[in-house]
């Protein structure tokens, strides 16, 4: 896993207010600890980190974006599993379909518009 230099895509900066995020225990959000997160308190936007690291899983997200990411992942995972693709090949297809670099093609990094595009692309994908 590679650290992304963009402060928004790496969870270091809130895309909503532009403030620097804080690195805190997830118990602050969930009341139980599930590991560390990057959090923007004023926006209630957050994201987790890869286990055992401080590398964010993507951009911090508010409730709307968190729900869109879940929906995008659901459609994406269903697509590649049902179509007999590997996850890696599915991400190559997604990168090409969205015309974005492979190293930035991760649902965790996507904004609302990009998540909606993933959902629509996956609903219409025919092999």
> Got a strand count?
3
Label the structural class: alpha+beta
Low-confidence stretches: none
Order of helices and strands: EHEEHHH
Helical segment count = 4
Residues in β-strands, percent: 5-15%
Judging from the principal axes of the Cα atoms, what is the shape?
elongated
Pfam families: DUF3268 (PF11672)
What does this protein structure show overall?
This protein has 127 residues and is α+β, with helices and mostly antiparallel strands. It folds into 2 domains: 1-60, no CATH class; 63-124. It is 39% helix and 10% strand. The chain has helices spanning 27-30, 63-82, 87-98, 112-124, and strands spanning 22-25, 36-40, 45-48. A 3-stranded antiparallel β-sheet has the order 1-2-3. The relative contact order is 0.14. The model has no long low-confidence stretch (mean pLDDT 93).
């Amino acid at each position: 896993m590679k650290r992304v230099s963009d402060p928004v895509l790496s969870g270091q900066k809130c895309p909503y207010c532009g403030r620097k995020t804080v690195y805190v225990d997830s118990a602050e959000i969930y009341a139980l600890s599930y590991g560390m997160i990057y959090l923007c308190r004023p926006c209630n936007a957050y994201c987790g980190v890869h286990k055992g690291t401080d590398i964010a899983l993507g951009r911090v997200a508010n409730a709307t974006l968190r729900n869109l990411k879940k929906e995008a992942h659901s459609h994406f995972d269903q697509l590649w599993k049902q179509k007999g693709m590997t996850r890696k090949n599915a991400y190559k297809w997604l990168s090409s379909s969205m015309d974005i670099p492979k190293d930035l093609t991760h649902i965790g990094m996507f904004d609302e518009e990009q998540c909606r595009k993933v959902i629509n692309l996956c609903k219409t994908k025919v092999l």
